[in-house]
Amino acid sequence: MKFYIKKERLIKSVQDALKAVAVRTTIPILVGIKFDADDRGVTVTGSDSDITIQSFIPKEEDGEELVEIVEPGSIVLQARFFSEVIKKLPELIVEITVEDQFKTIVRSGNAEYIILGLDAEEYPRLPIIEDGDHFSIPNDLLKSIIKQTVFAVSTSETRPILTGVHWMIEDSQLTAVATDSHRLAMKQATLQSEERNGKSHSIVIPGKSLNELLKVLDESNEPIQMTITNNQILFRAKNLLFFSRLLEGKYPDTSKLIPTDSKTIVKLNAKEYLEAVDRASLLAREGKTNVIKFTTMDDDMIEISSYSPEIGKVVENVKSISTEGEEIKISFNAKYMIDALRAIDGTEISIYFTGTMRPFIIRTDYDDSILQLLLPVRTF
Amino acid sequence: MKFYIKKERLIKSVQDALKAVAVRTTIPILVGIKFDADDRGVTVTGSDSDITIQSFIPKEEDGEELVEIVEPGSIVLQARFFSEVIKKLPELIVEITVEDQFKTIVRSGNAEYIILGLDAEEYPRLPIIEDGDHFSIPNDLLKSIIKQTVFAVSTSETRPILTGVHWMIEDSQLTAVATDSHRLAMKQATLQSEERNGKSHSIVIPGKSLNELLKVLDESNEPIQMTITNNQILFRAKNLLFFSRLLEGKYPDTSKLIPTDSKTIVKLNAKEYLEAVDRASLLAREGKTNVIKFTTMDDDMIEISSYSPEIGKVVENVKSISTEGEEIKISFNAKYMIDALRAIDGTEISIYFTGTMRPFIIRTDYDDSILQLLLPVRTF
Predict the structure, then answer these.
(1) Which domains does chain A have, with CATH numbers?
(2) GO terms for molecular function, please (chains A, B) (predicted)?
C-alpha cells in the first residue's frame, strides 16, 4: 500500500474514527484504526464493536486532489499514537507506505516515522446493513432530537435498557423518549421515509452512541440517511458512516407516566427562571441534597429556595408571567430542572403541576414537539 | 459588618485569594477566605499556611466607587462555595451583611444567600515582614525569571530543597537556579535595591509558590516590590500581597556542574529544532523511554531520532546553521529538551557539548542571561 494524502483531511478523518475507539478493549486490534486505500480514495475506520465510525476521503473533491493512490491496500495503525503523529507532521502532504511485516512508513518533509502496524485482515468486518428500512432527516433536526433527550438516559447499569433512548417510528413520525425513572425527556419529529412500507419501529439506541454521533455530525445542512435493522442503526452523512448497536430488551411503556391534566400552570421567563434555579442549585449541590423548593406566592411571584443545615440558605423571588390554578409547594432535583430547561431552549416556558407528590411537565408554547417531565422529591 | 461592593472586583479578588487556598488542609479555617472591611476598603485573604495571598479592594479607584462600607468588621467564608456564589449573582452590586453567629447575608437583586460563616478571630495572622531587605523588579522580568527556571525544580520529595528555586542576590544581581539533578535552568537579572546595605541573600523559594505567583501577577507594568526575611518572601504589587514561606536547608552548589569549555558547538533554528524534537518525543513517550538521539552528520545536518522495539522508529534530519568541532552522538530526555527550548524562547539557539557522557548547555546569542543544562542519558 502506498498513497499521498492531504494532511488536514487525514487528521479530520482520523479524529472522527478515533471517537469510536475505546481506551480499553478486550479485542486488541480495536486499539487501532484501519486504513483502506482503493481506486476511489482512502477509508478510515474506528470501532469499539458497539459503535463503528467510517470516514471516507475521496481522491478528489470539488476539483481538488485529496489523495493520490500509488498502490492500494490496507493496514491497521495504533489509533491514538497515529493521530498524534499526523497532527505534528511538518508538511501539507503525508506519504504513507506499507512495507513487509506491516511496517508502515509515514513521511512528511524531513520527518519519517516507521510504525509497526497490524494486519488489516484481523480487523472485524462492518455490520451488514442491507435490508433495513431507510429514513432521511435534516442534520439540524437530528442534532436537536439527540440533544433534547439523551441527557435524560440512566447512567446506572441496573436497568441497562434505560441507558438508551427509545425511538418509536410510526408512519414516519418519530417519538424519542429517554428516562432514568426520575425524569423523562420526549421529542417528536417527522422523518422522510424513502420506502413507505408502513412498518413501525421501536428501537433503543445507546445514549453513548448518540453522544458520539453528535460529535461527528458537522455543520452542513445535508440530510442524514438512517437505516434500521434488527440490531443496528446506521447514520449516513457525506463521507461518513456511523453504525451503532441497538440495545436489546423491551423499553418500558412511558406514555402513562405523562399527566394529561393539571391543577397549577406557571408560565415563566425561561432565562430568569433558569438563572434563579442555577443559583439555588449551588447551595443545593454544596449541601449534597441537590434539592430545591418551588413555592407559588402572592402577586404571581414564585419563591425558589434551598436549605442546608451545614451551609446556609438561598431564597430568590421570580415574577411569573402568569400563575393559574391552585397554590403549589414542590421540591425537585436542581440538576434535572436545569437539564430540562436547557433542553427546551425557549424564551418562555410553562410548568404544569398536578400536586406536590405528582410528576410535573415543562413545555414551551413555541414548540409542542418537546416535553420534559420531572418527578418531585418528597420533602414536605 | 456590612458593605456594598462592585461584583466584578469582588470576583477578581476572591479568585486571586482562592489560589492560596488548599483543597485539603489540616487547619479547618483555612478552607475559608477572610474578608476585612475597614474605612480604607475590603481586604480578601486566602492561605494554605505556606502561601498567603491578600487582595485589596479600595473604596475608590480612578474616581470610581468600588466599595461602600456601612459597618466595618471581619468574617471568614467557605472559599470555593463563596467564589461560585458571587459569580452567579444577578446584579452588578453585591451587599454583604454579617449578623449574629457569623450568619452572613449575600444579597444581589432578588437573590439572597444566607451563608454560615466562621469567626475571623480564628484565622491565622499574616507573617510579620518588617525588617527584611527590599528590592524592586519589573513585573515582566519577574515573570520571565520564574518561567525560565521553575519548570526544572524537582517534583520528588526525596530532596525537598530541590523542589524550590535557588535565588542568590549579591549587589542587586539575582541568579536564579533550579535543578532536579537531571537538568538545570539558570537565569540572571538585575534588581533595584532600595536599601543598599550590601547584604547578600541565598534563599530557596518553593516552586509551587512561584507557579501560583505567576497566576496572580497581572499584565500591568508596575514594578513588584520584594521583601526578604529569614523564612519568608513577600511580593507586593498594586492591591496585592503575596507571601511565601522559604525552604529551609542548604541548596547544593551548582556552579561546578556547568561546563566552561566545549568540544562541539551546534547552532540551530530554534523553531525547526523544537518541532523535530517534539515529533521524535511522541515516539519516545509512547515507547516509555522518553529518550531521543542527537547525531551530527555530514553537511551540517543533525539527525534527531528515537526508537522503540514495540512502536517503531522516527528519524528526522535538521539542517544546522553551523556545526563546529568534533562529531557527537548523544541521547537525552525529550521532555527536558522541550522544556529547555521553550524557556529560552529565542529564534536561534546554540548547544555546547563536551562529550557523549558529559552535561551540555543550551544558550542563545540574543540573551546571555539564560542558560539551560541537560545531563545526557547513557544509551551508547
Answers:
(1) 2-122 (3.10.150.10), 133-255 (3.10.150.10), 258-374 (3.70.10.10)
(2) 3'-5' exonuclease activity; DNA binding; DNA-directed DNA polymerase activity
Residues A182-223 have pLDDT tens digits of: 999 999 999 887 665 667 899 999 999 999 999 999 888 889
**Alpha carbon distance B136, B224 (integer Å):** 6
Q: Band of the pLDDT at A133, cuts 50, 70, 90?
A: confident
pLDDT recorded at residue B249:
94
- Residue B263: the pLDDT is 97
Amino acid letter at A371? L
| Longest distance between any two alpha carbons in chain B, whole Å | 81
**pLDDT > 90? residue A67:** yes
CA torsion, points A209, A212, A216, A220, in degrees to nearest 10?
70
Cα distance between residue B44 and residue B5, in whole Å: 12
DSSP string of A194-210, one letter each residue: SS-----EEEEEEHHHH
Contacts of B104 in chain A (CB under 8 A): 312
Instruction: Name the residue of chain A whose CA is nearest to B89's CA.
Output: A279
Give per-residue burial for B71-108: e unless 16+ CB within 10 Å, then b. eebbbbbbbebbbbbbebbeeeebbbbbeeebebbbbb
CA B151 to chain centre: 8
The single-letter DSSP state of residue A246 is P
Cβ separation of B114 and A276 shorter than 8 Å? Answer: no
- According to DSSP, the residues that pair with A135 across neighbouring strands are A193, A226
The answer to whether the Cβ–Cβ distance between B88 and A318 falls below 8 Å is: no
Cell output for B336:
527536558
Cβ contact, residue pair B81, A112, below 8 Å: no
- Give the chain B residue whose CA is nearest to the CA of A312: B115
User: Closest to B314 (Cβ–Cβ): which among A113, A283, A312?
Assistant: A113
How many angstroms away from the CA of A114 is the closest CA of chain B?
5
Cβ atoms of B217 and B145 within 8 Å: the answer is: no
Say if the ipTM goes beyond 0.90. Answer: no
Distance from CA of A332 to the nearest CA of B (A): 19
Mutate to test the interface with A, among B7, B81, B277, B307 (most CBs of A within 10 A): B81
pLDDT, one tens digit per residue, over A333-379 is 999 999 999 999 889 999 999 999 999 999 998 899 999 999 999 87
B380 has a pLDDT exceeding 60: no
- Residue A356 burial (CB < 10 Å; 0-12/13-18/19+)? middle
Element (H, E) at A169: strand A164-170
